[in-house]
Design a protein that fits this description.
Elements: H1 8-24, H2 35-55, H3 60-87, H4 93-118
C-alpha cells in the first residue's frame, strides 16, 4: 500500500465530505453556521484522521487509535445527519448521506479489526 489515498475508507470518507459540504449549503441560512458547520467539520475530520493515523502506521496501536477517532467522527456525523433529517425532512440528500455514513462506519470498523489482527509493526 503506497499511500492513504489507496485506502477504500479514505476514498469514501473524502467523497462523502465533499457531498456533505454541498448538501449543507442547502440548509436554511441560520443553520449554515450551526448544524451546517458541525456536520462539515465532523465529516472532514473522518478523512483527516485517517490521513494522520496513516502517517503513524508504523506504530500499530497508535494507528488503531486514529482509526478509532475516525470511527467516532463518523458516528458524530451520523448523529448530525439524523438531526438534520428530523428538522428538515425536505432535504432528501441527507437521508442518502446517512445511509452512506452508516456503511462507512461499518467499513472503518472492519478495517480496525483487520489492523488489529494482521498489521505488522515493522512497516
Amino acid at each position: 500500500m503506497g499511500s492513504y489515498r489507496d485506502l477504500k475508507i479514505y476514498q469514501i470518507a473524502y467523497d462523502l465530505a465533499i457531498k456533505v459540504h454541498h448538501a449543507s449549503l442547502k440548509l436554511p441560512k441560520f443553520e449554515l453556521y450551526e448544524q451546517g458547520s458541525q456536520i462539515r467539520r465532523s465529516s472532514k475530520r473522518i478523512k483527516d484522521t485517517i490521513v494522520e493515523g496513516y502517517g503513524r502506521r508504523r506504530y500499530k496501536m497508535e494507528y488503531i487509535n486514529y482509526l478509532t477517532y475516525a470511527q467516532a467522527s463518523c458516528d458524530e456525523t451520523i448523529g448530525h445527519t439524523e438531526t438534520i433529517m428530523e428538522l428538515y425532512p425536505n432535504l432528501e440528500e441527507f437521508a442518502g448521506l446517512n445511509v452512506e455514513y452508516i456503511s462507512l462506519g461499518k467499513q472503518i470498523n472492519s478495517y480496525i479489526q483487520y489492523v488489529e489482527k494482521n498489521w505488522n509493526e515493522q512497516l
